[in-house]
């Protein structure tokens, strides 16, 4: 009876984490595809200002992080040199901009599955920045995931057309943007890891300063491009778009805190399994909601990707179970980090 209390408490914590991440990121995925690919109004106008979405997301997250730090009476001063926050911020802006822009040329299922291939750039950046060494099995899983993603991208169903350009949707430009996303995202997560290990940094402190830098940089970019007033005018004329952008920023911010909570409470392995499941559900939901047809080659590629990811998590869990008590004593709890939704 004594054991059932803590177990039941942990079960409810797990349900809270899974429901929170799945709900916020599934809504986020549907909204970003709707905003970038579905026309608004009777004149069928497309929203083309991806940097404006980055600005709205970051200013919301920055405000909430500042509020949390003030409410918990934690220091607002930067822990690391400001230029290091800015490095993450620049990389994060480029990551998110590539992600939104890519939706003009590739569908959400293609983009979501391509994100799974981030293992390879993370390993490259980990070797260069953190001097990490990886096992042969890590390279095998990275190769299998990249192979599955390549099959999924190279063999789209002929009926899946980009709303911006005619022809098969997986254009060279769309794939190039996804490669840019993977490269910048790999650098962002690796450099965040380096910052957490190099400084005694609280998660909300890093979120606040990186998103604050992102606000300034994205606003500067909008002003230099002359797109700020055009974006404001668009959402003013299309109130449904304004609602979508506001909801997108809200769920993007909420997802960051659910991610932080999950990694702190259950560790990176559980989080990775939840994210893999979320990506699979996102693809299925997008195919149903937006009527994306999938070729049999794409189904085959998806099986390779998700089969490899689940196998990797399962084998890693088995390998870590015997040494878990020692690891916790030497390393402490895994550091949560900001992850792009």
Write structural notes for this entry.
With 341 residues, the chain is mainly α. It has 13 helices and no strands. It is globular and about 55 Å long. The model is unreliable at 166-170 and 324-337 (pLDDT under 50).
- Proportion in β-strands: under 5%
Question: What is the gyration radius calculated from CA atoms?
Answer: 20 Å
- Rounded to the nearest angstrom, the distance between the terminal CA atoms is 40 Å
The number of helical elements comes to 13
As an assembly, this protein is: single chain
Average pLDDT reading: 77
What is the general shape? Answer: globular
H/E order of the elements?
HHHHHHHHHHHHH
Helix content: over 70%
List segments where confidence is low: pLDDT < 50 over at least 5 consecutive residues: 166-170, 324-337
Q: Give a quick account of the main beta sheet: strands, pairing sense, barrel closure.
A: none
Q: Count of DSSP E strands?
A: 0
Structural class, from secondary structure content? mainly alpha
